[in-house]
Prior knowledge:
By secondary structure, the protein is an alpha/beta fold.
Amino acid sequence: MTGSARHLVIFARTPRVGQGKRRLARDIGEIAAFRFQCGMRRQLLDGLGRDLRWKTWLAFTPDHLPPGARGLPILAQGAGDLGRRMASVMRRLPPGPAVIIGSDIPGIRSGDIAAAFRALGAHDAVFGPARDGGFWLIGLRCRLRFVDPFRNVRWSSEHALADTRANLRGKRVALLRTLADVDDGDDWRRYQRGQFT
């Protein structure tokens, strides 16, 4: 990989019955939530992991190798809240622009990732806004002088994107299309009916 390599990082929880997606599991049951997690990971790996326009990494928590990683490089997310874990991964990647996505957004396509990297050609950061006020993607162009955009963010709230953007005041920021994640039973039923884009 050259210094200009593009890095896509898929953030995921190692799928285990009864862990992760707690609101979803409460609404649809632990087994169905587990199956959703596994299915989404397979979908992302099939749709994005083989694309030669970027190098795909998997960042898992808890910090150990999950089954079925399909030979992609693995990064441990590390300790702390979501912001500390994303900052930790950003700092450990090789040089080049980097994009992090979540693993519970059915609408992500390879064109979205390509658009994010294109945006980083002229912007310092890029976000994929989520309908709930958070974001499904964040990308940073230059990490040599890492500006941590994840400080004091109210995670899992409608303020997450606004708080993160406030930490990037003075930087050039691009926005992609707005997508929704699957957090609860209503979201899951829309996903099952094919109503997620």
